[in-house]
Design brief:
Blueprint (H helix, E strand, L loop, with lengths): L3 H13 L2 H8 L3 H15 L4 E4 L2 E4 L1 H28 L5 E6 L6 H13 L4 E6 L2 H9 L5 E5 L8 E15 L9 E2 L8 E5 L4 H13 L6 E5 L3 H9 L5 E4 L10 E17 L6 H33 L6
Parallel strand pairs: 3-4, 3-5, 7-11, 8-9
Antiparallel strand pairs: 1-2, 5-11, 6-10, 6-11
Helix pairs in contact: 1-2, 1-3, 1-4, 2-3, 5-9
Length: 316
């Protein structure tokens, strides 16, 4: 078998005109160069060098072979650099399933940071509901999905990374706009609207569960429209809806956002343990680092708020 080292030693000897000089350049013993080139000649069945006291000269066969050997080594080097770049996430492709707005928040910050570090990685996004995303992950058609909840999915790995506050979307002339925050009891008799596509069904179930806890069966209408048209329906008074914090970065004419008191929506990453995509693994590592930073900042804020409430004047 011809090995890469055979080609490297042969090309080095051809370029330096000497086994000794080739050995110095390669930082190996001269005997190793001589032995491997002899093995190569035996394998090919032809002499590649004419040997003399001052060094070596290529034979006719050697001249013919050296061009192909150089080309083979270049291709191997190119391939090695390609693979190394993929391993370092300088190149690659990630497919991400999303269930949250990219307008702001944790996911937006994560993707912005990843793009800065790995600008050459192609990132492809897919909207959808959690069940569809998880099915695609099991088939390795998605690398990762960022979805709501903390449910465990069979044949998948998952990790909670962040939480978002929940906001009610109201028309700007609604009486509840006068309040800075709202509770579920304020919404018990309101009409809600959701879209038929994700995350509409999940919002429908979320509203039903929360309001049922108050003993109310909510009035929820489903419309076959996208997010923009759903907010247009809110603006003209067809009903209220809810969304997670990230989506509130996009202001829509005629609507107002009001936070739901004490409501936090957890988000997690879901992926397959069989996924060995290096670009995805770098994304997951960055997500964990960002998650720890966010949690540390939240804890620091809570501690500072608690300290100030106990001693409102820090100079006392």
């Amino acid at each position: 078998m011809i090995e890469v080292r055979h080609l490297r030693y042969f090309v080095a000897a051809a370029e330096h005109g000497s086994f000794r000089k080739a050995a110095v350049a390669l930082e190996i013993q001269e005997s190793a160069v001589s032995r491997r080139i002899r093995d190569l000649e035996d394998h090919l069945g032809a002499s590649l060098f004419q040997r003399y006291s001052g060094g070596v000269h290529l034979t006719l066969a050697g001249h013919r072979f050296v061009h192909r050997a150089r080309k083979a080594l270049r291709q191997i080097d190119y391939g090695a650099k390609d693979v190394a770049a993929i391993g370092r996430s300088e190149l690659g492709h990630i497919k991400i399933g999303i269930f949250s707005s990219l307008a702001s928040g944790f996911l937006s910050d994560l993707l912005r940071a990843y793009s800065k570090e790995h600008a050459s990685v192609r990132v492809e996004f897919t909207d959808g509901d959690p069940a569809d995303h998880v099915a695609s992950i099991r088939r390795l058609q998605l690398d990762v999905a960022f979805i709501t909840g903390t449910a465990r999915w069979s044949d998948c790995e998952s990790e909670q990374l962040w939480s978002e506050r929940v906001f009610v979307v109201l028309p700007d002339d609604h009486p509840l706009c006068a309040r800075p925050e709202l509770g579920w009891h304020d919404l018990a008799n309101e009409r809600f609207i959701v879209s038929d596509g994700a995350p509409g069904p999940e919002i429908h179930d979320y509203l039903t569960q929360r309001l049922a806890d108050l003993g109310h069966h909510p009035e929820i209408h489903t419309h076959h429209v996208g997010r923009d048209n759903l907010l247009s329906l809110v603006a003209i008074g067809r009903g209220l809806t809810v969304m997670s914090e990230a989506g509130t970065a996009a202001q829509f004419p005629g609507t107002v956002y009001r936070q739901l008191v004490s409501e936090l929506l957890p988000f997690c990453a879901v992926w397959s343990a069989r996924n060995d995509n290096p670009a995805f693994r770098r994304l997951l590592s960055l997500a964990r680092t960002l998650s720890r930073s966010v949690r540390a900042a939240v804890i620091a804020t809570i501690f500072l708020t608690s300290s100030l409430s106990q001693n409102p004047d820090p100079w006392l």
